[in-house]
Amino acid sequence: MVQSVLLTGAAGRVGEAILADLADVHEWRLLDRDPPTGEQPGEFVVADITDEEAVREAMDGIDVVIHLAGDPRPEAPWDSVLTNNIDGTQTVFEAAVDAGVETVVFASSNHAVGAYETDERTPEMYRADDDYLLDGTELPRPGNLYGVSKAAGESLGRYYHDEYGLSVACVRIGNLTEGHPPIDYERGQAMWLSYHDCAHLFDRCIRADYGYEIVYGISDNDRKYYSIDRAREVLGYEPQDNSAEHD
Ligand SMILES: NC(=O)C1=CN([C@@H]2O[C@H](COP(=O)(O)OP(=O)(O)OC[C@H]3O[C@@H](n4cnc5c(N)ncnc54)[C@H](O)[C@@H]3O)[C@@H](O)[C@H]2O)C=CC1
Ligand SMILES: O=C1O[C@H](COP(=O)(O)O)[C@@H](O)[C@H](O)[C@H]1O
């Protein structure tokens, strides 16, 4: 079924991957603080997600929000993640509930759980013959303030689901790289998410029925320390790519 989708952070890399495959599949309203370049598949709202009035206006008539906008830098300072990632995300959830939106899909990150990668476990856990696996039920364990902001976004989603019945999927995205997995980077190969699998995963988040979910967003890599079982079971995610096929 075609859904009316608001995509925040639409001008970025994850937005590009999603729209590359899904531009004609749903009805899009795009939002970013950076103006668009080139032709767009829908109305483009130039706004900052901390601008409550603009975000409320952008929610009008929307079924699903994919919330990508934020500071994506693992080394981002506190003032930026506080404003863009935590305050901005709260503004998006609050406006979504008030507008009667059914589902919000939140771009969380591997960095929400980065501190599980201890000196004792690495680099072995990045390899195909190691069986260490995180499945999304573990507590957040951020390794930087950016990761803290993503854990906060997951908690905001939990609150808006429990309090208001909003359907929320938090996708702990791995390493999105176009065309091939990261080169000479074992960790990045273990958490590679191809552009096609990224678009497919977010399409499943738009279409599936769920309450509150945390899933990992990686391709079906032989090397992996994030389980994709939950994404398969609840969302119907069927990834096609595997970083091992690019060795
Ligand atoms: N690319 C990756 O491998 C991963 C990305 N993520 C998350 O996915 C989301 C998108 O990441 P990317 O596309 O890689 O980053 P990006 O930097 O390419 O795109 C982010 C977009 O959000 C916009 N934006 C930032 N702050 C904003 C604000 N306050 N108001 C309105 N627009 C704002 C930027 O202008 C930019 O177009 C981020 O939340 C990031 O944390 C998570 C894990 C991995
Ligand atoms: O959350 C994110 O994670 C990816 C992968 O992390 P890295 O530490 O292996 O680079 C990162 O590339 C991306 O910018 C970030 O938003």
Comma- or semicolon-separated keywords:
globular; single chain; Rossmann fold; binds ligand LXAUTJHC; 247 residues; alpha/beta; two-stranded parallel ribbon
Q: How would you describe what is shown here?
A:
The protein has a single domain, classed as NAD(P)-binding Rossmann-like Domain (Rossmann fold), CATH 3.40.50. It is built from seven helices and nine strands. It has helices at about 15-20, 50-60, 80-100, 145-165, 185-190, 195-205, 230-235; strands at about 5-10, 25-30, 45, 65, 105-110, 165-175, 175, 190-195, 210-215. It has a seven-stranded parallel sheet with strand order 3-2-1-4-5-6-9, sandwiched between helices. The model has no long low-confidence stretch (mean pLDDT about 95). The ligand O=C1O[C@H](COP(=O)(O)O)[C@@H](O)[C@H](O)[C@H]1O binds near residues 74 and 187.
Provide a compact summary of the structure.
Homodimer. Belongs to the NAD(P)-dependent epimerase/dehydratase family. The protein is α/β, with parallel strands linked by helices.
What fold name goes in the CATH topology slot?
Answer: Rossmann fold
- Note the main sheet: 7 strands, parallel
- Classified in CATH, the superfamily is NAD(P)-binding Rossmann-like Domain
Task: Work out the helicity level.
Answer: 25-40%
Family: Belongs to the NAD(P)-dependent epimerase/dehydratase family.
Function: Catalyzes the NAD-dependent oxidation of glucose 6-phosphate to 6-phosphogluconolactone.
InterPro entries: Epimerase_deHydtase, Glc6PDH_archaea, NAD(P)-bd_dom_sf
EC number: 1.1.1.388
